[in-house]
Design goal:
The protein is mainly α. The protein has 9 helices and 2 strands.
Length: 214
């Protein structure tokens, strides 16, 4: 029924009704209410489904490759997967945004962005380990994570609202998010006097190195 809800939202947009979803699922509206409790429960289930898809994508693009692939390849691959998912369901993403279920909630069980933050925190832990390996201050990492999420979510809303209509295709948007992510990462590193080598994996001892001071 969650998949049917997603199909109904794709078809009817933000104004989708429980009748629309029941028809798409081929069930009665009372059965829909028994299953989800209310419209808010259904909306939450849709958000959880999108979040789960993002987490599954991260398992392939980040978790499975973080000790082997270069960090740059890993980040670009994960961004491309994220953009592909958003591009596949832009109406659903807009629906979740309208119902305040896409942004980071702070509670860990609210918006889709909570799953994105969970993925980011796995990556952040690896950056923290790299900084600690060279005895550098790692306290800047949470700020970098917040900056990446904030910039990424804002850019996503712009892209689905008007960017695609203005000719910003998936590849261009993914490239922009990747470059923005690295800009924030490199800025955080420079703040604590560290340079990262994106063509190396996290496990390489040369991935993080101290900047030379003139």
């Amino acid at each position: 029924m969650v998949d049917a809800a997603i199909r109904a939202i794709d078809r009817h947009g933000v104004g989708v009704s429980m009748d629309d979803i029941a028809a798409e699922a081929g069930v009665s509206k009372p059965k829909l209410y028994r299953y989800f409790g209310d419209k808010a429960g259904l909306n939450g289930a849709v958000a959880a489904k999108l979040g789960a898809l993002m987490w599954e994508s991260a398992q392939v693009t980040i978790f499975a490759e973080q000790d082997h692939a270069s960090v740059d390849d890993m980040i670009r691959s994960s961004v491309q997967s994220y953009v592909a998912l958003v591009g596949k369901h832009p109406v659903v993403i807009r629906f979740l945004m309208a119902n305040h279920l896409f942004q980071y909630s702070g509670s860990g069980n609210g918006g889709v962005a909570d799953q994105l933050r969970s993925v980011m925190e796995v990556v952040a832990d690896r950056f923290t380990e790299s900084l600690q390996r060279i005895h550098s201050d790692a306290s800047i990492i949470p700020l970098a994570v917040a900056s990446i999420l904030g910039a990424g979510l804002s850019a996503t809303q712009w892209w689905i609202d008007s960017g695609r209509e203005q000719g910003v295709n998936d590849s261009y948007f993914a490239a922009h998010l990747s470059e923005t992510t690295w800009g924030i990462i490199n800025g955080a590193g420079a703040t604590v006097g560290v340079a990262f080598s994106p063509d190396l994996p996290f496990s390489h001892p040369g991935f993080a190195s101290r900047l030379e001071v003139n």
